[in-house]
Amino acid sequence: MRVSDIVLISLLIFLSQCTSSPLNRKQVTLYSEGEMASQGDSIYRAIKESTPMSAKSETVDYVNCVAENLILGLDDTAKRKFIWEITTFKDPQINAFALPGGKIGVYEGLLGVADNQHQLAAVIAHEIGHVLAQHGNERASQAAIRNLGVIAAQALGVSESTVKAIDTSAQIGLLLPFSRIQESEADQIGLQLMAETGFDPLESVVLWQKMTGNKSRRAPELLSTHPSPRSRIETLQTLMSSAEQTWVDSRKSGKNPDCIFVN
Ligand SMILES: [Zn+2]
To answer: What's the whole-model pTM score?
Structure first.
């Protein structure tokens, strides 16, 4: 068997590793959840070693309160499958992140923009959405497939310029649209989670509008990792009336989070 055949067969095996996101979108996830969680853990440890944690206990309590209310609203599988952990970092970045396995980070700077519990919930719920939908696994898998595609093309003896074209189109065609899809998916999961746990979903739109209109010298880092706020707002608005109804129902059933905002 030639090298090219082995590469192509591996590619087909890899492509057959399909799973479905919580919104029933087909995904290729090549890595086990355990592998992804342990990668998430080591990145989280490295960030914790290089970035000081918030020293303001009221701020930490506030962020934990919002995150805990959201996590309590997850179904049993999601509660069991991930080891959720939230850390507030002493850093002026207007940003937050989520790592595979359930490790979430919030930077103090975010609280200067997300200045009530609902807006902070919008960001954290979105990050939880990325974890639930295994977006880290999907991104890592796409990168692996792209590399394999390039290796396959090289093994097949195609010209250097064609290999380059495959590489570029794979990046544009596979990675970029997928990451937009991932963002929209995390928004939808996050919006639903906010509403189900008693946070006002409409505040997610207010937050993104503020992010877009932020005229300060420092653009929010969140926008560099979370592009196209305008289309994001449009998507959120199309889902808003149903989310608001869910919110009203959750409040009636006693879900009224009361996390006191402290910056
Ligand atoms: Zn995101």
So the answer is: 0.83
